[in-house]
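Field notebook, page 507. I keep forgetting to write these up properly, so this time I am using the form the group agreed on. The chain and the ligand, iron/sulfur cluster, are recorded exactly as supplied. Prediction of the bound pose follows.
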Amino acid sequence: MQSVKVSEWTKNVIKPDEIEKYLINGRDFIDEDVIVSQLQANAKPDKARVREIIAKAMQIERLEPQETAALLNVTDNDLWNEMYAAGLAIKRKVYDNRIVFFAPLYCSNLCVNNCAYCGFRYENKEEKRRILTMEEVRQEAVAVINEGHKRMIVVFGEHPRSAADYIGETIRNIYDVKVPVRTGYSAIRRVNINAAPMSIADLKKLWEVGIGTYQVFQETYHKQTYADLHPLNTIKGNYRWRLYALHRAMEAGIDDVAVGALFGLYDWRFEVMGLLYHAIDLERQFGVGPHTISFPRMTPASGSSLSRNSNWLVSDENFKRLVTVLRLSVPYTGLIITARENAEVRREVIGVGCTQTDASTRIGVGGYTAALQALAGKKTDEQEIDEQQFTLGDTRSLDEVVRELAEKGMITSFCTAGYRCGRTGDKIMGLLKGCIEGKFCKANAVLTFREYLDDYASPATKAIGEQLIQKEIDEIKAMPFFQKGRMLETFERMYKQVADGERDIYI
Ligand code: SAM
Ligand code: SF4
């Protein structure tokens, strides 16, 4: 596309009325003075109060900002240990011992923005630019499916060539890819999107092609920092256009939306408060909060000195703390930890309540196909690294991570059933809050884990996986929930179908 057309397009992306309609008396939901005063007023919470707040979270109740502020200010190590234990207990209560896996797919690194921390920003001349054709998208999908994945999050820079129509085509093409296995086929059953904020009309296009979750990270909720890192003459420079991206998505009919902040740009305590206020405002305006929260820590990106030198980089210890406070503050919301983090950190934060993660991850545009070509000696790894946005901390395969979790008694779930049975948005949140969704999920986790063990697992993973799956089945048989009606019978019939080679069977 000609540069003049790019600048014309850029000027027309933001629709001011699709920001203003969500404001209250001209104000957005991030009141910095209020957040700062709440953090100050709760600077030295006493033990008894902290324990009351923990007890409230254990009842699967969302915390109020004052309560979250108190938890963020805890200094006593014993109390932190209690909070870590509570984080895991809450996760177990709502999500049991399941971890959901997904694979990111980078489709394009073309970008009209200039975010100071990102390798894709337009001024970064070190980055080789590339946008996948639909044939390449399909090849990437095949490579991801062949690892055993069933869910994807597809990532795009912001550019007219990767706007809503391209994203929609991408979703359609990925859903279309079917790889025969046993007597059924393997496919990506849920396509989530991480892309720039869009208008309601564009978001409706994504809804029509079956988008899963729509994810937008605010990066930082702190307005001055936001302005410093996102030039005002770029689309991303508009803080409020981004702040209400997910409100527009809800209005467009997309049930599941996902928030996030990029940790390392500003004070981590402030950002946790921002995330909480974001969840509260979605609940207030649409009756349901975010489906998941992400908390990526900034990692070194090509051509970005900020990504290495920021004054706000978060230590491993504070990272574990912030994840724990989020777990307690929104007990029923999914928490995503990614392969940006190294294996050790991932273990730590999964242990305080994360629910989703990725593995076998490639973040170069066309990275999965490139990895296969490198294996076959046709392309070098350096070529892929040229097209990456930042660096990964954990490059282990899906099989390795699934095995490690299984050894700890955690079952990998590839389930995508909830969405396809209409258990999304407020319906799934209601079920999660009542700890009911977990029962369906337990059964579906077993069915999809059976598929994985038979289709993709290495012998070592299969060995430990068989023990785990048997334990899960025994638990299901003992659960009163499955004694009702013909639930157990149905589950057992489905399990046999899957073991016999049928695919994509779910309750
Ligand atoms: N362009 C879209 C946007 O900005 O919303 C979506 C794609 S962008 C590549 C996805 C996310 O990557 C950003 O929201 C940001 O939080 C994250 N990111 C950017 N630079 C990063 C870095 N150096 N380390 C970790 N995450 C980073
Ligand atoms: Fe572009 Fe997103 Fe990277 Fe910013 S974070 S430069 S908008 S790809």
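OBSERVATIONS:
- Residues 422-499 form one domain.
- Residues 41 and 114 are 37 Å apart (CA to CA).
FOLLOW-UP: compare against the apo run.
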